[in-house]
Amino acid sequence: MTTAVGADTARKPATMAQALGRALRDAMAADPSVHVLGEDVGTLGGVFRITDGLAEEFGEDRCTDTPLAEAGILGTAVGMAMYGLRPVVEMQFDAFAYPSFEQLISHVSRMRNRTRGAMPMPITVRVPYGGGIGGVEHHSDSSEIYYMATPGLHVVAPATVADAYGLLRAAIASDDPVIFLEPKRLYWSKADWSADAPEQVPPIGRAVVRRPGSGGRRAATLISYGPSVPVCLEAAEAARSEGWDLEVVDLRSLVPFDDETVCASVRRTGRAVVVHEAAGFGGPGGEIAARVTERCFHHLEAPVLRVAGFDIPYPPPMLERHHLPGVDRVLDAVARLQWEAEWTEGSAV
């Protein structure tokens, strides 16, 4: 984004919610074909106030309140995209998106391939997802595996303020449909950031190492994304007292998947743990573990382990702290990575 002469480019504390709102505003200002639509995105500014002020600034024809009908919302977006617009759909909560899956799977994900590239689908579907806010079921799901398993979709999940802005701008500019997973419990996380001169971030499809490790004999890689990245960073700091050196990789993009960055880290450390809120059985961790095992088998000192949500419907608010992966569960998994002393002592058992 070009910064006006004299604009205040100082970095100031900003929340992820503010960065997302600014990304929408800047995209709409830069391109009149960008339209925002969803339940309560106009007058209310969205349940989480991400779209606050957009209807006032750009008009209700570009920031449009819709009926409570997710299939209709996404179906409308398909028609808009076919006529050259760039719709940005907000699904109010993660599990509210389920009624729209027929449109998503039958049309959004397939249209560009169906037309041999003649008709792109530049649709961004914003999905506030995940737990940690005391929400009940249908308000706290981690649905990423459904999107990952649908060819034709890009799937991204920011974990930082800078990525929230940069990845959303990239998603809106993409000619492929992007499922943009926004971790609700990170909406109010803060970082120093300049709204008038936002930093450049890696593109969709690139992971980053958030915490480098030394790659020594007591090293391991924590692989995560979205709301579990801060958990992994906290666990990595706590692991120092146990003598473990944990490198943390933030995937950022689930589809396309950055095998290069992930596998380079695992080859350095020789061990890996995948951490996410979604259920373990059939979840993203299984695919990630398989990819790492196929590409890093001769570098692995132990099986790739997973720390995930339990294989249950999302629990009531008072129980979610037991369901969500936390620092203790991550460290417990690290302890099971067949460290040399433990393996030697127990090998005869």
From TrEMBL:
Residues 14-189 form the Transketolase-like pyrimidine-binding domain. Pfam families: Transket_pyr, Transketolase_C. The keyword Oxidoreductase applies. Gene3D superfamilies: 3.40.50.920, 3.40.50.970. Its cofactor is thiamine diphosphate. Keywords: Oxidoreductase. It comes from the Bacteria. Its EC number is 1.2.4.4. This is 3-methyl-2-oxobutanoate dehydrogenase (2-methylpropanoyl-transferring). It is an enzyme of class 1 (oxidoreductase).
